[in-house]
Amino acid sequence: MSVVVVGAGPAGVRAVERLVNGGQRPAWIDEAPDGGGRVFQKPPPGFARRGAALYGEDAGRAHSLHAALEALKPRTDWRPGTLVWNLRPGPRLLDLQGDAGHSTLAYDQLILCTGAMDRVVPIPGWTQPGVTSLGAAQIALKTQGLAMGRRVALCGTGPLLLLLAWQLTKAGAAPALVLDSTPWATTLRAAPGLARNPLMALRGLGWLARLTVRTGAVPLRIEPGCTGLVWRDGRGEHRTEVDAVALGWGLKPETQLADLAGVPFAFDPLQRLWLPERDAAGRTAVPGVFLAGDGASVGGSVMAELGGARAALVVLGDTGAEAARLDRAIAREARFRTALERAYPYPHALAAAMPDDTLLCRCEAITAADLRASVAPDINRGKALTRVGMGRCQGRLCGPPAAEVLAAALGCDIAEVGRLRGQMPVKPVPMA
Amino acid sequence: MTVVRLLDQDRPMLHFTLDGGPAEARQGDTVLTALLTLGTTVRTSEFGDGPRAGFCWMGACQDCFLLVDGVAARACGTLVAAGMSVVRR
Ligand code: FES
To answer: Do the Cβ atoms of A177 and A240 come closer than 8 Å?
Structure first.
């Protein structure tokens, strides 16, 4: 049996750990030069910070994950710096691009742990230098020791917004402005659910108490040259002088390989996203293809570790006590996640109402007006007519907001406009 | 934009070339970090909407493409090496 694990973040590491313990020697692929994923990404060689200076209260978990990663590398066919740019479900083949060029890899069983990226709402001015995702601003701080500017505005919602604001403050670069699109009342309504995971909830409140966060506040436009941010809250419109802006309304899974594998997708009304269908153990309708971690549905790093381990047990045919224990932990974590989604919803009305001149698709410079004028009956027709989502990022950034814009223009439910289908190559590859 | 070197910046200097001219970075800098701390951008939009400098820093948005030693590469995922040639687009 040839087993392949794609991704070496929290889900991938724990999947490989169980597989190796079960006597397998999987092929293990990550696009980055080293494992760890995004949450536990390590700075390149030469940086001095370690432990809590990088990972805060998660330093213990980071250490444990990195130790497992190092121990597992020699016991697998470890292939860092390798992109899976295509998946052929018929012959069960992956097309890879690495330092040594192109190659193919066969699989019988495949666990996809492809992670997530920021989910954004495009606003006028967002394509300018100085404007990044929240995730980018966190990666810059963690792995490069950088602040994006001297007057940084953080805009979005969810745990990452608060965590990054806190991390920057601790590093001596407190943000000039923090805008949380979610009104306090919404967050509080979800609070009982959050209390199911007291550690996370307490941490959230602890950070909040020491930060000035404007809630129910959204960015409207970034001025030319990224010198000012115009924003709105319940009291009206305001302008704040900035030199950098970071945007992020939660995360969305990287589902391109699951899509190529032929895994069916279903619309999740809570997240307002199309997600690959899988059961709690990571099984999909496609034999031999399993999903775990944020790449299946954003659940955070604790859920990712549980999901990776659980999927590996399925691959091993292990139905023992550990599987049952993991199932209970996953169910608990899933309830917490539902509460978190309710506490920090994607501001779909803001996306749907984006001004006509907003560059909705930054790859192809397509405006919201272009998509509205297309009156396409669904998002794939919209793509064909306007090129929205046809660029280099394949709609990773513009997909969800484009669906909101189109659904609002058509006056229909967002689920009715469908989803942008994935295509190979899932990322641009230099063709040798 | 002015990206600020905040923490952990005591690293050896590296020399590389940017659009044919001499430029400096620190060991461990990505090409994106090097360019942004030099106060410059990555590329000019082919659609006339001005300069671009990446967005996601994680290899997803593909907005930081340039040429590294003659090959198309993402600035956010490439570490600067001594003597490297970086050409913006
Ligand atoms: S900044 Fe997005 S791919 Fe490099």
So the answer is: yes
| Closest CA in chain A for residue B7 | A145
Q: Which atom of ligand 1 is nearest to the CA of B74?
A: 4
Which of B41, B55, B86 has most ligand 1 atoms within 8 Å of its beta carbon, as the pocket-test mutant?
B55
Within 6 A (CB) of ligand 1 lie: B 54-57, 59-64, 74, 76
Tell me the CATH number for domain A348-417.
Answer: 1.10.10
CA–centroid distance, residue B75 to ligand 1 (Å):
7
pLDDT in tens, A262-304: 999 999 999 999 999 999 999 999 999 999 999 999 999 999 9
What is the residue extent of each domain of chain A?
3-117+252-340, 120-249, 348-417
Nearest atom in ligand 1 to the alpha carbon of residue B54 is: 1
Mean pLDDT of chain A: 94
DSSP symbols for A140-157: HHHHH-EES-SSEEEEEE
Residue-wise pLDDT for A148-170, tens only, equals 999 999 999 998 998 899 899 88
**Is the pLDDT reported for residue A399 higher than 80?**
yes
Contact A171 B6 (CB under 8 A): yes
Q: Which CATH architecture has domain A120-249?
A: 3-Layer(bba) Sandwich (3.50)
Give CA–CA dist A199/A202, Å, rounded: 5
Quote the pLDDT of residue A162: 87
Give the whole-angstrom CA distance, residue A404 versus residue A379. Answer: 10
- Ligand 1 closest atom vs CA B77: 4
Whether residues A132 and B63 touch (CB distance < 8 A) is answered with: no
Q: Which two tokens stand for residue A396?
A: 């990773």
Is residue A410 over pLDDT 80? yes
Rounded CA separation A221/A239 (Å): 10
* pTM of structure: 0.96
Q: Both tokens of residue A61?
A: 């978990």
